[in-house]
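for ur thesis appendix - Dihydrofolate synthase/folylpolyglutamate synthase. copy paste whatever u need, i formatted it the way the template wanted (i think)
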Amino acid sequence: MRDAPSSSLEAWLARLEAAHPVDIDLGLERVAEVARRMGLLEGPIAGRLITVAGTNGKGSTVTMLEALAREHGATTATYTSPHLLRYNERLRLDGREATDAELIDGFEAVEAARCDGEPISLTYFEAGTLGALHAIRARRPELAILEVGLGGRLDAVNVLDADVAVVTTIARDHAAFLGDDLEGIGREKAGIMRPGRPAVLGSPRLPASVAATAEALGAPRHALGDTYHRTSEASGWSWRGLDAQGSPLRVAALPDPELPLDNAATALQAFALAGWELDAAACRRALSRVELPGRMQWRGQWCLDVGHNPHAAEYLAGRLAERPCRGRTIALLGMLADKDADGVIHALAPAVDAWLPVSLDGDRARSAEALAERLGALEARVLHLADSPGEGAAWLADHLDPDDRVLVCGSFFTVAGVLAAWARAAQTSTDAGSEGTT
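the 3d part is after this line
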């Protein structure tokens, strides 16, 4: 017999976390069967579906696709992971975060289907993905955009067939699940492609296996630097590509979205291939207004970015070099134990003057002391060690000069910890002010 459903979102999330023996269990058999029981495989859940895979750049590509669609008047749904502060961030419906009630309705539908017959065990991510797809189908937006959580071929979002498949970048990450062979990683991520449906390749440096997969499937290939291009110009940058019928397109005088321009160009190409006629003014509005917390997010002297592998760190170092400061650049760094800390430190080192390593919580966490050892071996200057991102941010706030800047990076958990600490401090200040007026 199925347990009575939990009443709150927090209770549901705790239940889902405890429901499966492992956090990551790649494979589509279990999730596909529950999706079938839910009726998710009976027809499209949206007018058009774009799935985005890759090592880095997935979140920014999804966000820019959503912005483009909304500025063109389309109804939208996006599903991304992980979240920073609230689980609700993972599902956005017409530009707003899903409510607790919408998420719980999805979880209840998943639970009912999971136990309809022989019970099927699902991971936290699998149950969350199916719940999000249930919510999206209920609204049937004109465009749904799904971000792959890990890999591609065996990821839960791949239970649905994408109208347009996007692969942003390929680098080494999640080696325990995907291995270290870039060609093999490329094949896994290209597993979201479907026969005869467009595949957008968002980097000119992808492994050959990605293009080979598209060719083997007969998926029309649209590659950055080949089928579509971005070019710097005096008034911003311009984009050239193709529409769904293969006719040439060009949009000029585009603004810098403060996100990777390769991903912006990729979003434009994927959106055009999904069937929309690009309006230049709408494209400019979308890219000028797009915001993505935790990706080159500036708050005064502080820049927060969830980059956690050498490829992402190299991009961060380049962006910081474009914005020189008169003071020090200090990296508040927190990383998981299964990430390439040496590679990240090497990539960031040209742009960083001093470091503040912090400890993260959890089974996969790396301590500040362990990070300090790696930094010491590389003769990097360590200012202080902190037991948490919030503690590190508080220490830095008391030791910054006006011309200094801070890069918070290394993990979603690092950025989330600092944002949460700031939110608590703001709430404490608000509460204190309220008490003072009573």
